[in-house]
Automatic annotation (TrEMBL):
Keywords: Kinase, Transferase
Organism: Amycolatopsis alba DSM 44262
Protein name: Sugar kinase
Top-level taxon of origin: Bacteria
Pfam families: ROK
Length: 388
């Protein structure tokens, strides 16, 4: 019975997330729940502060009704993303809108130092942008091998982390309910809750930065695998690459397309003087031919991986999250062209290979989505429900 109530309350809350300003009768039709069940769940969700009633409006046949919507002004969801070189911390409302975000370098600091820095950045954001709101909790996304169930970073080679109990460390420092997941899975949650509607059927998310990883979801399930190790594509072998990898082999996807590799190649090509990825990206976005060519070649290699993932998993859509896809003209087209040439399954790369729904806020959204997913999966019986 408890599981059924949770699932029904989740269905009601998701219906309001999808529709907004929705009548109780419409929720009943969307969810298949009885009018009495919807009324009961709505009352409970309003009591907890997740839903609010809007002013009465006239119905289609003149009969007035009171629409419901998410209460986006009462709570705030905290999100953090740990990248190889920097931290991103943000505040989101219940619709996943990023209200504010901060980014700061961490210089590869030890876990305890990064945890303290995240807590400090969060305090600054909460005081400066949401002093009257109640924090629901903190979602954290990072690369590497993350065990979502225990909140542990099992292994993150580029950070030098092994067996880091990130959830416990952050809970102790912030006092918040903390959830931790890999950033590709986090971004799938974001897309399915807030982004591409087709992602709810089946979706692959490929993240390419200094860390390269992937995630897959079908139906209502994001695949984790034993100890949440699914999505480890960093060491896929790609054509035309002899780039050495820290695993001891050469030609691995992550080593070939990582942001550090791009920066180094830009120096070797005399495009820039120092290995600085943001600098190379800015040059490419501004039309520098050498920088553009470097990113287009990288996009071609990313396209190899996309084609392979598409043929193995056959998703409704495959989302590529990469800064060059967002900022450099032609990169997404190059990836799609490579998929069209290599994939046996993908019939329409333009339709099926797409960019992120959250340009400019991807990392803050990834962290926040870890916590938002927990809320929308179980609004009644998670610790979140006690925040009000």
């Amino acid at each position: 019975m408890t599981g059924r109530r949770s699932a029904s309350a989740s269905a009601v809350l998701r219906a309001v997330l999808d529709e907004g300003a929705i009548a109780r009768s419409t929720i009943a039709r969307r969810t298949g729940l009885s009018a009495a069940a919807v009324t009961g769940h709505v009352a409970e969700l309003m009591r907890r502060g997740f839903l609010t009633e809007l002013p009465e409006v006239a119905g289609a046949v003149g009969r007035p009704y009171v629409p419901l919507d998410l209460d986006t002004g009462r709570f705030v969801v905290c999100g953090a993303h740990i990248a190889v070189d920097h931290l991103t911390v943000g505040l989101l409302d219940l619709r996943g809108k990023v209200l504010a975000q901060l980014e700061a370098p961490h210089h590869g600091a030890e876990p305890a130092v990064q945890v303290a820095q995240i807590a400090e950045l969060l305090d600054d954001l909460l005081i400066g942008h949401a002093p009257e709101r109640t924090p629901l909790g903190l979602g954290v996304a990072t690369g590497g091998w993350v065990d979502e169930a225990s909140g542990t970073v099992v292994e993150h080679g580029l950070l030098g982390w092994t067996g880091v109990p990130l959830r416990d460390l952050l809970t102790e420092v912030t006092g918040l309910d903390v959830r931790v997941d890999g950033h590709s899975r986090a971004l799938i949650h974001a897309e399915r809750l807030l982004g591409h509607p087709r992602a709810r059927s089946s979706v692959v998310q490929l993240f390419t930065g200094n860390v390269v990883d992937a995630a897959f979801a079908t139906g209502d399930t994001v695949h984790h695998g034993p100890r949440s190790a699914a999505g480890a594509v960093a060491h896929l072998r790609v054509d035309d690459s002899d780039e050495p990898c820290h695993c001891g082999r050469s030609g691995c996807l992550e080593a070939t397309v990582s942001e550090r590799t791009v920066a180094r190649k830009a120096v070797e090509a005399q495009i820039i003087e120092e290995p600085d990825f943001p600098g190379v990206l800015h040059l490419a976005a501004s039309g520098n031919k050498g920088a553009v060519a470097l990113f287009h070649e990288r996009a071609r290699i990313i396209g190899q991986a996309v084609a392979l993932l598409f043929d193995v998993l056959n998703p409704e859509i495959l989302i590529v999250l990469d800064q060059s896809v967002r900022d450099v003209e032609g990169c997404l087209s190059t990836i799609r062209d490579e998929v069209s040439q290599r994939s046996w399954i993908c019939q329409d790369a333009v339709k099926n290979v797409v960019a992120s729904s959250f340009p400019g806020t991807e990392l803050a959204t990834a962290g926040g989505a870890v916590m938002l997913n927990a809320l929308y999966e179980d609004p009644l019986f998670t610790d979140l429900a006690n925040a009000s």
